[in-house]
């Protein structure tokens, strides 16, 4: 056997501290980035659906919805970015589900690392995909004639989107841990996300909806996120939708993150 | 019930790297592990031999802190597996039946990733990865994605991944199941090297030959219970480490053959099956004695074969029944 030359640091006994947890989370995120490096097609795959949605919504519905495609583009880009971000979080759950079933998490759980590091690392790395998608959609929007409110606000919009996505990713993690297959995560996600995003201000003015639906659409978190995106990127109020977006993000995180961690621990039966 | 591999009743935590007492795991109504007591002396290999569904994987998962026992206690490296799970994790390595490696990452990246997780600096993690790849004969495939690896290479990479942090105690859960004999032999060599360096190994296997090759002590388990323990030599003496299979050319001579065996070796219990007789033997003299007798009586044979007992034959001797394949499904489902 080869003589040992590389000394592993004596593993610290006991629970990892905050510094170690952050470092382990970053290592987990690194793994996800290397996966993208080896499978760059994933980014193309990721870009197709936002590109398609943007083109179809603007050029098919635009004239009918807002009288002109350029007016509708100004309205809908923020909504489409919000919808796409929520759909993207689904992949966090499917990825965790696949790792759990393949035994990768068994190895993680046998290592002296923080319990939350594998989940947090995955969520964190998936934020790269969020930023990537925003860049694709704003880029295509600009080519189509979108007028940006201000570059500074566009960066702020991306930041807001990432914060909201970080929070709601825990819904996806919860589904990923509980579901027994990737397909089920996708079905659950589809059944929730599709109606949720359509009953909001993402694509239409909610004042055109019947009363009962308006009541829901006004509180729907997607409405606030879409309004915040529209305010920052295009036109309209900013402060109020931004505040409600944060309220929703905190509330969703506070409920689903502990549930997801609990479900994850219970997987250790 | 206390089936001990210990020779004395005084337990020092440093003497035994792995100790369990009455460890039990229920999955609903299914009792996967039923009051098992095991002890692995530091620096030795404890072989846990049993068929699918016997509770081997459940046992390993509890000791590796992936799963919590329903009852009983376990200590690994002197640390309680429930109270001190983080400490246990810093001492162990685990190689499961299903490789815990990322198929998209290269072999080198897989190992470097574990090194980073364990708090190594990038440069040290890279060097440790290269060192392990060389040691495990994977240097040429270091920069290929793991999905391009053969079954044997994947198992070696998985074993290497469990060794990045130089664990003192290693759990190998059926490390060679599904491997061809050559890959199996290579893996055995690697395990022997680790043990020579002082690592304590708990190995689960379905192969008596594997336990015989590697283990200092063997515990045979069935339906979550220990049904026999001992050194490979003791165990083979008890169960007949080898099996002699005799098939007469003329089916009608089967009875004559059986009475001859019974009269010559009254201690052995011949089994008649599919036109042949099988007997568990551990005395090298049996084969020549029988050969001479058979020639004298003019019994012509189509088969006269001495081989190491399979797990199936071990079970037949210990429990009077064959292993049950269907038990496997119930354990899998319970997980």
Largest beta-sheet characterization of chain A = none
Series of H and E elements of chain B = EEEHEEHEHHHEHEHEEHEHEEHEHH
C-alpha termini separation of chain B: 26 Å
Radius of gyration of chain A: 21 Å
Content of β-strand of chain B = 25-35%
Described by its quaternary structure, the protein is heterodimer
Mean pLDDT reading of chain B: 85
CATH homologous superfamily (4th level) name of the largest domain in chain B = P-loop containing nucleotide triphosphate hydrolases
Low confidence ranges of chain B? 1-13, 325-335
Considering residues with a beta carbon less than 8 A from a beta carbon on another chain, report the largest interface and each chain's count.
Answer: A-B, 40 and 51 residues
**Biggest sheet overview of chain B:** 6 strands, mixed
Counted up, domains of chain A total 1
Spatially, the strands of the biggest sheet of chain B line up as 6-7-8-3-9-10
Number of helices of chain A: 10
CATH topology of the largest domain in chain B: Rossmann fold
Topology readout:
The complex is a heterodimer of chains A (269) and B (335).
Chain A: H1 18-38, H2 41-66, H3 69-102, H4 104-110, H5 117-143, H6 151-178, H7 182-198, H8 211-219, H9 221-233, H10 239-266
Helix pairs in contact in A: 1-5, 2-3, 2-5, 3-5, 3-6, 3-7, 3-9, 5-6, 6-9, 6-10, 9-10
Chain B: E1 16-27, E2 30-41, E3 45-49, H1 56-63, E4 71-76, E5 79-80, H2 85-89, E6 92-95, H3 107-117, H4 122-135, H5 151-163, E7 169-173, H6 181-196, E8 200-205, H7 208-214, E9 217-222, E10 225-230, H8 232-239, E11 242-248, H9 254-264, E12 271-273, E13 276-281, H10 286-297, E14 301-308, H11 311-319, H12 327-334
Parallel strand pairs in B: 3-8, 3-9, 6-7, 7-8
Antiparallel strand pairs in B: 1-2, 1-4, 4-5, 9-10, 11-13, 11-14, 12-13
Helix pairs in contact in B: 3-4
Membrane topology (chain A): Multi-pass membrane protein
Family (chain A): Belongs to the ABC-2 integral membrane protein family.
Subcellular location (chain A): Cell membrane; Membrane
């Amino acid at each position: 056997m080869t003589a040992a030359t590389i000394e592993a640091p004596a593993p610290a006994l006991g629970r990892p501290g905050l510094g170690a947890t952050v470092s382990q989370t970053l290592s987990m995120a690194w793994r996800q980035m290397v996966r993208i490096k080896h499978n760059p097609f994933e980014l193309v795959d990721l870009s197709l659906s936002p590109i398609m949605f943007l083109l179809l919504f603007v050029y098919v519905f635009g004239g009918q919805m807002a009288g002109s495609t350029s007016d509708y583009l100004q309205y809908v880009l923020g909504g489409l970015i919000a919808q796409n971000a929520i759909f993207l979080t689904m992949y966090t759950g499917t990825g965790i589900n696949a790792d759990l079933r393949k035994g990768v998490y068994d190895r993680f759980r046998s290592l002296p690392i923080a319990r939350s590091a594998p989940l947090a690392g995955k969520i964190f790395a998936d934020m790269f995909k969020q930023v990537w998608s925003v860049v694709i959609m704003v880029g295509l929007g600009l080519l189509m004639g979108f007028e940006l409110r201000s570059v500074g606000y566009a960066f702020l919009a991306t930041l807001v989107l990432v914060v909201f996505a970080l929070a709601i990713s825990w819904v996806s993690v919860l589904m990923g841990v509980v579901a027994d297959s990737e397909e089920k995560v996708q079905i659950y996600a589809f059944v929730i996300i599709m109606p949720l995003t359509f009953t909001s201000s993402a694509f239409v003015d909610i004042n055109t909806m019947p009363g009962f639906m308006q009541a829901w659409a006004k509180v729907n978190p997607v409405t606030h996120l879409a309004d915040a995106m529209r305010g920052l990127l295009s036109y309209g109020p900013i402060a109020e939708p931004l505040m409600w977006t944060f309220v929703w993000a905190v509330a969703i995180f506070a409920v689903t993150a502990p549930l997801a961690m609990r479900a994850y621990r219970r997987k250790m039966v | 019930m206390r089936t001990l591999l210990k020779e004395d009743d005084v337990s020092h935590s440093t003497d035994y790297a792995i100790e369990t007492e009455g460890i039990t795991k229920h999955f609903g109504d299914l009792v996967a592990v039923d009051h098992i007591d095991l002890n692995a002396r530091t620096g030795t290999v404890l072989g846990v031999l049993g068929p699918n569904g016997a509770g081997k994987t459940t046992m390993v998962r509890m000791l590796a802190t992936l799963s919590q026992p329903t009852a009983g206690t376990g200590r690994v490296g002197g640390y309680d597996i429930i109270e001190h799970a983080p400490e246990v994790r810093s001492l162990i390595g685990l190689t499961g039946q299903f490789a815990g490696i990322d198929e998209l990452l290269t072999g080198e990246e897989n190992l470097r990733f574990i090194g980073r997780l364990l708090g190594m600096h990038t440069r040290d993690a890279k060097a440790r990865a290269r060192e392990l790849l060389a040691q495990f004969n994977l240097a040429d495939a270091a920069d290929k994605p793991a999905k391009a690896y053969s079954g044997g290479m994947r198992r070696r990479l998985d074993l290497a991944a469990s060794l990045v942090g130089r664990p003192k105690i290693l759990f190998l859960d059926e490390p060679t199941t599904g491997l061809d004999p050559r890959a199996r032999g290579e893996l055995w060599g690697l395990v022997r090297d680790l043990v020579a360096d002082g690592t304590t190994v708990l190995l689960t296997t379905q192969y008596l030959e594997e336990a015989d090759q590697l283990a200092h002590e063997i515990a045979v388990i069935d339906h979550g219970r220990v049904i026999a323990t001992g050194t490979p030599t003791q165990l083979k003496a008890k169960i007949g480490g080898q099996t002699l299979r005799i098939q007469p050319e003329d089916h009608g001579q089967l009875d004559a053959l059986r009475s001859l065996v019974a009269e010559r070796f009254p201690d052995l219990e011949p089994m008649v099956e599919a036109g042949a007789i099988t007997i568990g033997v551990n005395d090298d003299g049996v084969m020549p004695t029988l050969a001479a007798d058979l020639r004298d009586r003019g019994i012509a044979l189509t088969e006269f074969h001495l081989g190491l007992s399979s797990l199936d034959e071990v079970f037949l001797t210990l429990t009077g029944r064959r292993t049950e394949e269907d038990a496997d499904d119930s354990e899998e489902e319970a997980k």
